[in-house]
Design brief:
Strands 2-1-11-10-9-6-5-4-3 form a nine-stranded parallel β-sheet. The chain has twelve helices and eleven strands. The chain has one domain: Aldolase class I (TIM Barrel, Alpha-Beta Barrel), CATH 3.20.20.70. By secondary structure, the chain is an alpha/beta fold. The longest helix is centred in the middle third of the chain and has 17 residues. Strand 10, helix 9 and strand 11 form a beta-alpha-beta unit. It binds 3-hydroxy-3-methylglutaryl-coenzyme A (HMG) and magnesium ion (MG). 3-hydroxy-3-methylglutaryl-coenzyme A (HMG) binds next to helix 4, helix 5 and strand 6.
Length: about 300
């Protein structure tokens, strides 16, 4: 890559000075892969992500191994990350069984994951919305009592493949209940990537939750993830989920494609002069390497553009 291939930095008023990137490539990115990715490759992926400057790297999930076979090696993966200092490794836990497995390995950050819609709650958790919140309640309490921090994910915040557009008031209601269980942070998921910026602003305005505890999690199905992110930043959000190389999808929502690519996000944030701590060259090299492991090119426009520069 040449120096000319970095964006010119020009700020835009009203945006945060820095953004915390919550990297989900190793979890959301890999959970839907058909071919099994060896544990050693996952560990190297995480090491390379950390080497590129990412400091919050969602590592894996402690879910039922039959539900997500790709992440069934959580117990084997976590010890391989112990040498990485100064990096946070949140993991997904749906229930007390998952939490106990994670805590036994010394995990300090967990995430429960609920749904704004009944259809996805059933498909993803085999529970109604009420039943899933009841399942999370002891998980959040026990995690906090153990000194772990808890992120609450809320999926289908904009549209649902079975139910269509999801009313903002419905999402705000479930968001409040999930957050009130004792979550430190709430990540708003556009699981199938159908949101547009006005919808993002409407939801953020409807939420009665401090904006510094809100993260956004956009899948990029319709190419809207970056515009939606900018709209969220303009509303004061400063935690953004993204997946290196644009990997990702949810096995229980067929129309879910990859997440917002971390490289596409960093290109925009570098251009806006917003600090992330991420080295775009090293991150792109990581995604090129991971694409080789998976045997197909990265869907990220920035990865493709920068890797063709070489
Ligand atoms: P279930 O079948 O209702 O489970 O699944 P159960 O509670 O009836 O338990 C059945 C058996 O599973 C029991 O064993 C449990 O011990 C065992 P048995 O007594 O029969 O021998 N079991 C477990 N084993 C290991 N680890 C566990 C565990 N839990 C139960 N944690 C369950 C319910 C929640 C477990 C299941 O539905 C599940 O694992 N779902 C996970 C689905 C998932 O991971 N989806 C992808 C992540 S969400 C996402 O991608 C969206 C997000 O990115 C945001 C966005 O984009 O919107 C976060
Ligand atoms: Mg997701």
């Amino acid at each position: 890559m040449t120096a000319a291939a970095l964006p010119m930095s020009l700020p835009l008023a009203g945006l945060p000075r820095s953004v915390l990137i919550h990297e989900v490539g190793a979890r959301d990115g890999l959970q839907n892969e058909k071919a099994t990715v060896p544990t050693a490759v996952k560990a190297e992926f995480v090491h390379r992500l950390a080497g590129a400057g990412l400091r919050t790297i969602e590592a894996t999930s402690f879910v039922h191994p039959k539900w997500v076979p790709q992440l069934a090696d959580a117990e084997q993966l976590m010890p391989l990350l112990e040498d990485l200092r100064g990096v946070r490794f949140p993991v997904l836990v749906p229930n007390e069984r998952g939490l106990d497995r994670a805590l036994a390995l010394g995990v300090r950050e967990v995430a429960v994951f609920g749904s704004a819609t009944e259809s996805f709650a059933k498909a993803n958790l085999n529970r109604t919305v009420d039943e899933s919140l009841a399942m999370f309640e002891p998980v959040v309490a026990k995690a906090r009592a153990s000194g772990a921090t808890v992120r609450g994910y809320l999926s289908m915040c904009f549209g649902d493949p079975w139910e269509g557009p999801v009313p903002v008031a419905q999402v705000a209601g479930v968001a409040r209940r999930l957050f009130d269980l004792g979550c430190d942070e709430l990540s708003l998921g556009d699981t199938i990537g159908v949101a547009t910026p006005g919808h993002v602003v409407a939801l953020l305005e409807a939420l009665d939750i401090p904006v510094d505890q809100i993260a956004v999690h956009f899948h990029d199905t319709y190419g809207q993830a970056l515009s939606n992110t900018l709209a969220a930043l303009q509303q004061g959000v400063s935690i953004v989920d993204a997946s290196a190389g644009g990997l990702g999808g949810c096995p229980y929502a067929k129309s879910a494609t990859g997440n917002l690519a971390t490289e596409d996000l960093v290109w925009m944030l570098d251009g806006l002069g917003i600090e992330t701590g991420v080295d775009l060259n090293r991150l792109t090299a990581t995604s090129v390497w991971m694409a080789e492991q998976l045997g197909r090119p990265s869907p990220s426009r920035t990865v493709r553009a920068l890797s063709h520069e070489e």
